[in-house]
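[worker-b] picked up task from shared queue
[worker-b] task type: protein-ligand structure
[worker-b] ligand name resolved to pyridoxal-5'-phosphate; SMILES cross-checked against name lookup, match
[worker-b] sequence length check passed
[worker-b] input payload:
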Amino acid sequence: MTDIADRLEALRERGLYRRLRLVSGPQGPRVLLDGRPVLLLCSNNYLGLADHPRLRAAAAEAAMRWGAGAGASRLISGNMKPHRRLEERLTEFKGYQATLLFGAGYLANAGAIPALARRGEVVFSDELNHASIVDGCRLSRAETFVYRHGDVEHLAWGLREAEGRGSLIVTDGVFSMDGDIAPLEELVRLARRHDCRLMVDEAHATGALGPGGRGSVAAAGLSDEVDLVVGTLGKALGSYGAYVCASHELIAYLVNTARSFVFSTAPPPPAVAAALAALQLLESNPHQVERLRSNAAVLRTALAGEGLAVGGETQIVPVEVGGAAQTMELSERVLERGVFAQGIRPPTVPEGSSRLRFTVMATHRAGELQRAAKLVGAAARELGIAPVPAPAESLALAA
Ligand SMILES: Cc1ncc(COP(=O)(O)O)c(C=O)c1O
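[worker-b] inference finished, payload out:
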């Protein structure tokens, strides 16, 4: 038996050791981290709703009325009203026939994928899909064909090779570590041609993309074409839990077969009520989605202006560094100067593509995002990651 201490040491040696930091107060744009004030640039509380007074009040009222917990799986101890109401509202919001709540996005993927892709079939998964999708594919007894990121030619090849055994194509709508958007139109076309279902995980797209924050599928006008969308309540909607929207038939099937639904306690009523309040706020204040988009553009432009390798096209703004150790060093230096952005390393991202991942909130101020970018640029130059800007005279000579 390997000693756990040795395994931990091996993680440290590879620059992959992780530890938890203490944040005081709610997930606002500025927080106290281990007792020091920092600009928070790594929360998925995209619209700043997690500590919104209406969500707090809704959660508190629900706790008083329905209790702190749901008691059991909904198939065991009954369906509570808040769950049914939120499912109805999400169904309308997303433009589907029906919705099913899950305990978390992780559980939604870990339950829905194995329900849909069975032994002898093939599931097609983008190589940069979230870990919960990867685990959902592993839990299914199906063969998994991992296609190169966003590469529809590679996917088409895999579908042809599967010779009719393909059952499901699954993709993030917005990729969680890269901040780019899946090629949804081509995925729909391939799914139709090869008679496969298409499932899109909108965890980072709901509240951020599409009309009124309805997500990447709605943004592409494809709600009638994508068989299932998954979303979480824990990111832009500021609460906790997740959902799958699909046809009546598919949802009835998931109620009966998705093991993470059947064998897991329903989300707590306060979390469900808070998500419902978030949805109401989103519908009445869609300008917050615009604010998120414009803040993302401000940070992206400012980081690129520092000569950094900025990726993606959404509120997730990755800056590629390369090695895990160098990434963590940059993250520490930036933190010392008051900016909290996570260094992302393997196994979350492929070896050699470690990065600082910034996530923007609608509640950030443009000026603080610009100052943060300058500070990141300076730290990256100290570590030799960003180019040193050419002196003014040589620019003049070159011109
Ligand atoms: C694309 C994607 N799907 C699913 C999840 C899991 O969602 P949850 O945090 O609700 O478990 C995440 C979380 O980061 C995610 O990025």
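[worker-b] attaching auto-annotations
[worker-b] The domain at 14-43+286-387 is CATH 3.90.1150.10 (Aspartate Aminotransferase, domain 1).
[worker-b] releasing lock
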